[in-house]
Amino acid sequence: MNNRVLIEDKLIYFEDIFEKFDCIRYFQLLINGINWQQDEIIMFGKKVKVPRLTAWYANPNVNYRYSGLLLTPNKWTDELIEIKEITEKISNHKFNSVLLNHYRGGSDSMGWHSDDEKELGKNPTIGSVTFGYPRRFLYREKNNHNNKFDIELKDGSLLLMKGDFQEKYQHSVPKTAKAVGERLNLTFRTIK
């Protein structure tokens, strides 16, 4: 397992957390077994569809609110518990929820944001697992948008965001005109 520290104590990238066989198996189980939905959010005063499919799984009564949405949890699946336990072991952190994103192609995306909702507490630890087609993950300083960086998140990888990363940085998964396949992203969180 290779790891690379991108920002000291704040952003660490681990490649090859999962074997290729497990990546394929988890991808298929999640594509077919998750309760995917496409929510609508208010942007610039208009209702728009979220540009990807999402799902919220968590311990009972662990709700999550972002972009005007209130997410109530689906019950953990066996494969989500397996992936969560691996993520917890590597991160040395316990999670009680996961927000899943299904990027169906290059036009599915995630705009610039920070995971800084009050339910996450100060300096949250978030473990972001990728299965499927690699996509670019951009991050930039909140105080200097010209100071922008990117990394390609590969199949079977884990990106660990912790410390004051959410306070000082924004991140995104931009649209791409390139022909890309489907990608699943699981962001494990601890709701206070």
Topology:
Layout: E1 2-7, E2 11-15, H1 20-33, E3 40-43, E4 46-49, E5 53-58, E6 64-66, E7 69-71, H2 78-91, E8 97-103, E9 110-113, E10 126-132, E11 135-141, E12 144-153, E13 157-161, H3 165-168, E14 169-173, E15 183-189
Antiparallel strand pairs: 1-2, 2-13, 3-4, 5-8, 6-7, 8-15, 9-14, 10-13, 10-15, 11-12, 11-14
Describe the structure.
The chain has 192 residues and is α+β, with helices and mostly antiparallel strands. It has one domain: Jelly Rolls. Helices cover 17% and strands 43% of the residues. It has 3 helices and 15 strands. The strands form 4 sheets. A 7-stranded antiparallel sheet has the order 1-2-13-10-15-8-5. The protein has a 4-stranded antiparallel sheet with strand order 9-14-11-12. Strands 3-4 form a two-stranded antiparallel ribbon. A hairpin with a 3-residue loop joins strand 1 and strand 2. The protein is globular, with a radius of gyration of 16 Å. The chain starts with a strand and ends with a strand. The model has no long low-confidence stretch (mean pLDDT 95).
In short:
The protein has 192 residues and is an alpha+beta fold.
What are the defining features of this structure?
single chain; 3 helices; seven-stranded antiparallel beta sheet; Jelly Rolls; 192 residues; globular; alpha+beta; 15 strands; four-stranded antiparallel beta sheet
Helix content: 10-25%
| Spatial gap, N to C terminus | 31 Å
What is the CATH architecture descriptor? Sandwich
At CATH level 3, the topology is Jelly Rolls
- Please tell me the overall pLDDT: 95
Query: Could you list the spans in which at least 5 consecutive residues all have pLDDT below 50?
Result: none
The biggest sheet amounts to:
7 strands, antiparallel
What Rg do the Cα atoms give? 16 Å
Q: Which CATH C-level class is it?
A: Mainly Beta
